Every structure is written in C-alpha cells, then in structure tokens.
Amino acid sequence: MNAETNHPERPRHTVPLPGCHPVPLASYLKGLGLFRLVAEQVDPDARCYWKNEGFVLVSNLDADKLIDFLLNQYRPSPIMAPWNSGSGFYFQEEKLKEKDPLTGKRKKTGIRNQPTEATRTIDGLLNSSNPRLTDLRTCVQIAKKILHEQQLTEAPDDNVKDFLISTLRNRLPDSYLWCLDAAYTLLPAGAKPPPLLGSGLNDGNLEFSNNFIQHILKTIPDQQNKKRENSDKPLHSCLFGLPEKTLEKTSVGQFDPFNAGGTNAGTGFDSASSINPWDFILTIEGTLLFSASFVRKFQYSQQGQLSFPFCVRSVGVGYPSGALADENKEGSRAEMWMPLWKRPANLYELRSILGEGRAQISGRPARNGVDFARAAVSLGIDRGLSEFQRFGFLKRNGRSHFATPLDRLPVQRNRYVRLLEEIDPWLDRFRSRAASTNPEPPAGVASALRRLENSILRLCQTEDPARVQDVLCALGHCERTVARSLRWTRETAHLRPIHGLSVAWANAADTGHAEYRLALSLASSTLLTANTQFPFRYFLEPVNHWGNHWREESLRDTAWTDGSLAYSLNAILHRQLLIAQNSPANGETSHFAHFARKTAPLPDIAAFIEDTLDEPLFADLLWGLSLIDWTNRDQVVEVTSPPNGHTPDALYSLLKLCFAGSSIRETTIPVVPAIHNRATHGDAEEASRLASRRLRASGLTPVIEKVTASETHARRIAASLIFPISTGTVNSLDHQILLEPEKDRGEEHLKQEFKVS
Prior knowledge:
- The chain is α+β, with helices and mostly antiparallel strands.
- It has 26 helices and 22 strands.
- The strands form nine sheets. The chain has a four-stranded antiparallel sheet with strand order 12-13-16-17, covered by helices on one side. The protein has a three-stranded antiparallel sheet with strand order 1-3-2, covered by helices on one side. Strands 19-18-20 form a three-stranded antiparallel sheet.
C-alpha cells in the first residue's frame, strides 16, 4: 500500500472514526462501507487505514461534511436478492377462513396475492421519487420484470435459482454485479453462497437486502415527505461511537453478536435484538468490497467457500470455545480472516487486496484456518498488511450463525514458520484421515491433530523457540498416537511415519532447558554394532532403521511405554545392551558403542537422577526430536550450554564407566547387562560390586568397591546410563573413579564403601 498522496488544491482531512472497530464484524464492515462510498461518490483520492483499534478516513471531507454527505448526498448501492422468499418480491399465499380438520390450520388457496412487510417495503421504494434511490429502484424494476417473464411467483429452488442468477447478471446494470458477486460464487456446479452474506443475502429468518431497503427508507427522506425526521444523532453514534438511546428493536443478523439479544444479554433475564439503522446500512455496503469474481479462476471448491476472498474452512482450534463441532457443515459455514493495515490505502489498492484475497502455502491454496495463518505471515508482509482478525461463522445462536471473533494474528516475518513446509505432505494426509468417518479413526487421533493445529497457530502468532518446541512435541504426540494403532495406520489410513525433518528444527526449538538438551542427546543417539546401526527411534516405535517405513518385525525391539519414564528408559537400555552383547565384531568381545550428534551434560543428567525434570515435556521432546534425520552430518547442531551445576554421585560414575560408549584408557569394556539389571531392580550395592569387578577385570582399578543407595535412586541411576556423554566427560569420570596407573603400582587396592542418600 502506498502512502497518502498530497493534493495542494484540495485540503485533506484526517477523520478518526472510533465507532468503527475491527470487532465485531459489523463494525469492521461499516468502516469499509463508508470508505467505499466516499471514494466512489465524493473523493476518488480518499485513503483509509486502521490505528489504535479504530478506522481512519483521509479525504476532502471533514467530520461535518462527512455527516452531511451521508444524510443528503449518499446514493445507496443496488442491493437486492430476488431469489429469497423474504426479499419482498413474492406475496404470501392466500388463506381461507375454513380450517383443516387434521392440522387445525387455515386452508390455502394456492394463490399468492397477500402482501407482507417485505413486499410493502419494495412498494415503498418503487413509489419513492427520491433521485438518490434511482439506481436501487431501477434494479428492482428490472428484477420484477425478469421474475414476471420467468413466471416466478415464489422463491425458486436451486436449479431455477441458478438460471435466475445468471439472468440477473446478464441484464442488470454493472453496478449490481458487486452485490451479486458478494452474495454468490458462480462455479461449474452452480451458484454457491459464501459465508459473509449468509445463504445468499439471507440468514435464517433475516433477509439482508429487504432490511437494508427498510433502513434506507427510514434514514433517507422522500423528497415528497417533508415530515420525516432526518436526525443525525444515529449517524454520529454510528461513526464516532457516541451513546445512542434510540436503537431500533430489530434483528441484527450474524454481523454483531454483541447486540443480538437473548438470555443474559442485558440487565434483565432477556434482551431484545437492537441496532442503529446506519450500522446496518454501512455494514451491508461494506460487504460489497468482498467479491468472489476476481478469484474464481484461481481457486475452486464445491462448497464455494475457498473461492471467496480470505475465506477458508473452519478449524476448531485457536480460541477458548473451539470444538470439533465447529469444523463440520452443521456447526460452521466457514471462517474469514479480515485484514488490517496501518498505512493509508486508496480504493484501487483496497479492491486489489480484498478482491484477490488468496493465501498459498507450498504452492497450493490455503484450505483451512491453520493454513491461512501460515500463509498470512508472508502474505500480509508482501501486501503491507499489519494484522488479520479471524472470524468464524459458527452456530452459536440456536440454529443461526454468528460471525464470532476468534483471535488476532499479527503479521511479522517469522523464519520458523517455513519449517512447517517439511511436514505438509504428511499433515495433509493425516488431517484428511483424522476427519474420516468411514471408518472412524482410533481414539486420540482427532485430539492429536487439534493439539498440532493449535501449536501451529501459536507459532504463527509469535516467533519463539518455545512455540517451535510446542509444534515439535505435538508432532511427536501425533506419531506416538498412530504408532499405537498400527493396523489402522497402515491398512486404512496408509500413513507413513513422519520422517526426514531437518536439523533446523532442533536448532529452532532450543529453549535452553535441561529437558531439551537431554532429549536431544538421546534422540540423536545411535547404537553401533558390527552389523548395523540402531537409531534411538528404532526403540520407540516399530519402524525400520531409517524411520521412513513401518516394520512390524521391529516390535520386539520397541520398548517404550507411556508409564514411568525411568521404566521406559531402562527397558530401552536393556534391549540395547542385549543387542550389543549379541553383536560382537569379528570375534572380538562385545561392547556398548554409542554415538550421538549432541551428548548430555553431567549437570542435566544429575537433574534427571534427582527427579527435578518435567518428565512429560521430556517425553514429548524425545518423540518430537526423534523425527529428525540425524544422518545428515552436514547440518550443524547448535545447543545452548547448560549452567554450572553439581554432577551425579559416585554410583553413576562407577556404573557409567561400564557403559561409556567408548574405550577408557584405550581399553574396551565388555558388555555386562547384569550390572544394569541389578540397578534396575534397585540393588545398588550388587550393581556397584559387579561394576567394580568388571573394571578390575579390564585392567582398571576403581577407588571404590561398592555403593549403597535407595531402590528408587538406583533405578533412576540405571535409567540415566542411557544418556550418551562426550569423550571429555568420560575422561572426567575416569579421573574421579579410577586410580592412575603410576599410583596403582605396588599399592594395595583401596577398598572403600560409599553410601548415597
């Protein structure tokens, strides 16, 4: 959007309109409607923008002239819907005084000749001589002629309606096409109504076009009726937010849920729906800026929703009242993301933005609210937009829909959002399978998807490593959910495992917490044997060694459970030790060889042993980080260094030297699963005695013989042995536990006992 153009010959006035807010939708639309009318009928160089939650108009009209324009010059747009039964184009069926004995209702004659309030409104318009209503009156006259030619005496059904809409498009003036394109999208399957104007300028019992004409006749005086009051108080209230006591008790429709009335909507038990006539008029005028005609050739949807500007399918996430019911046709029509901008824009620029209204991700149109949030981050920056206000057309009033404000998305460059492109193919398939009803997915799949979509929306709102971490954890939760239902996943959903995420995910998700560093060290670790390599993910779920296919044969090595974290880690380490013991290299003694892209710091391991970590978070991170392709050595892993802290006790040091993952003083320690088994069963004394014996048998002399500790502590020590540590850390433990070779000569072994509290 360009900056405001200065015209010395015409003074420019900046008029803030505090009565026009981004929320509710009626308030947003009336600001756009006012601007469009000023730009089309008074000042083509007018500009508008949003500031401090209010609409600002820049034109050659000051506040007083703006009021005068609307009261005395404004020419209403031709807005009508001859296809609706309540539009005023159709009479009611005549009834006899005689009643049907079965139903108790008066019998009908089949003749439609009874006027209604809607038909009287149309007659009032046709009988008016006000020149300001000429365009609207002319379109109504042509429409009545078309209905007469097509012999339509009642609202047409869908097939006839499509033909009627095509005829209206061909024969009515071009000024009416803005209304038609806002009300219906013409698709090969027929005319489909976008959600902005309900079901084609109609919402339940409220017919928008006839109510629009009613309010026009009340606010714009007939030149022949000088008695009609032309007060400017409602207009001041509409534009400038001044208190207004003379609101009309009439339906406001879906645009303003706050004034819709109902139970607990006022000071009493119940409240009637009320509205300022000018609010309704300008709201409907504002809808004409959203036209589907510009995007029909780009996007297609059988529902006619994706072809409408800034309109996508609903997702019941990102707001407190979100629910799965909001995602089906019965609960929601769709949702729209209304743009906000801080730099002045003229009508041409605004029509271009609103008319295009396309948002794309990964080369395809955004299909739902989560997709749009991702696309909006780049779309808004490219178009000069600052925010998007999200509205859902949700069923919140019986069977009627409300344009419910959901959340606000600030538009700013977010480098982390591009990471989501790596999961797009999988996410599209997972989303479609989670929404399937034949057969229904297993329990937990839908909630896993909702958690993922919620985390993606939060990431789009804030560029923060914690938000990336949330998405990664949610992905891990999805993977864990489908892995538990392998038959459905493979045979019905045909879902592959999430695979191949780049190391950039790990770098972006670093929050500097111990849970993250420990999960990263474990997820990036690989068990090395003579025959093959076993990535840590292999022990979490039944996948092949590369993690890109399901493999039921791997179930025997899958040791993760959703219970105790220490129990799961001990089970996995037990399985790894058995594999290492049964895989010696070329007849050599088997040993525990461990490699990790990032090793675990001792202070973090101590925190795990002391049970001070957030274990559910650690488990989620472990599953999420395991989805990364750690075989790509070209990508550097950057991790925040831990703060200084105390290290694990002597029991850990003694046992870890037996499972260090590398040689100690050029000595390979053979695998002895019994050491880990005794610690897993809580027998610290026997585990430490076995460890000391194993080290001495390898030519290394520990300074302690055994360590006594509680069963719980011993089990957590056993689980902590699975965390890979660096060579430098192994050397540090070596100096703490083992005697130096030169000091060991000629001296008796120091048999000391330690007790760990």
